[in-house]
Amino acid sequence: MKRIILLFLVLVVKTSFAQMDNKPFKYGLVDQTGKEIVPCKYDDIETFLSGFAVVKLKGKSGVIDKTGKEVVRCIYDEVANKQNWILVNNKNAKPQYLVKSADVLLTKKYEEVKTVSPEITAVKLNNKWGFIDVVGEEITPKYDEINDFSDRFAIVKLNGKYGIIDQIGKEIVAPVYDRVQNFKEGLATVELNGKYGVFNDEGKNIIPIKYQTDFSFKENISIVKSDGKYGALNNDGNEIVPIKYDFMVWNEDLIQVKLDDKYGLIDKEGKEITAPKYDGIESFKDGIAVIKSNGKYGFIDKNGREIVVPKYENADDFVDGVAVVKVLGGK
Known about the structure:
The protein is 6% helix and 54% strand. The longest helix has 21 residues, at 2-22. Strands 3-4-5-6 form a 4-stranded antiparallel sheet, with no helix packed on it. The chain has one helix spanning 2-22; strands at residues 27-30, 36-42, 44-45, 52-57, 60-65, 70-76, 78-81, 85-89, 96-101, 104-105, 112-115, 121-125, 128-132, 138-143, 145-146, 153-158, 161-166, 171-177, 179-180, 187-192, 195-200, 205-211, 221-226, 229-234, 239-245, 247-251, 254-259, 262-266, 272-278, 280-281, 288-293, 296-301, 306-312, 314-315, 325-326. A hairpin with a 2-residue loop joins strand 26 (247-251) and strand 27. With 331 residues, it is mainly beta. Residues 1-19 have low confidence and may be disordered.
């Protein structure tokens, strides 16, 4: 008889819990003092992310902030809470986006959003892109594209042309160029009609847009081409090597030049290390390069000193302090 009573009690307890599980729960919020800041009225409250949480009520979704204020009414079929924005959507309608700025949810709705830096969110409206700047102000959407910010700058596209803006929307380089490279060490290369020039990060065109080669600064020097001839400029736009050579290329930390089919070397200050007099200069290895003159091979160091005059039929690069050379063998 005791076993039957015990079994009956167990069944009663299980049934009571089952009935409780079937009852709908309501959710609210309390703060750390125990004060109820949102009454238990929602069907669900999701986890807070960046100061906001999705709530559900009567089959619809909305958003509350940490104070419990309903910043997005529960009128949407779908609400997705992301790190920097909130997506709201109803069936048979286009999704819309609300941007978070610090602890504030901005009220304007956008067609699309993307993160272009940890502090900046690009926004799309009427098929044009702008962004919410670092203080939460909207930079009016007017660009066809906005790329990610690198340091303080981003490349923008407008009417098929490119420029550069800063974090408050100022156009440092106007979007009128065929191609733009973002700032690196304070310099940005632009291309227009096949010619290249350079801007500094204050928006000043420090190198005119007239050169035929892209700029690739190495230790504040870039090789340039103009009217078929080569020279070198520093990053202030000053000519340190006259534009008179048939070709130029970096050879380690020296510049190798070609003039009238002869090769020479120039240092980073524009000083001639050796005049263009060799038939060939190979790449420096361990500070020494193979040279060729009148069909013979020798070696030169970075000071222009011929450590071996050209006298061999062939010569290999130095490896472990030695180089293989070749002469004609006797009978």
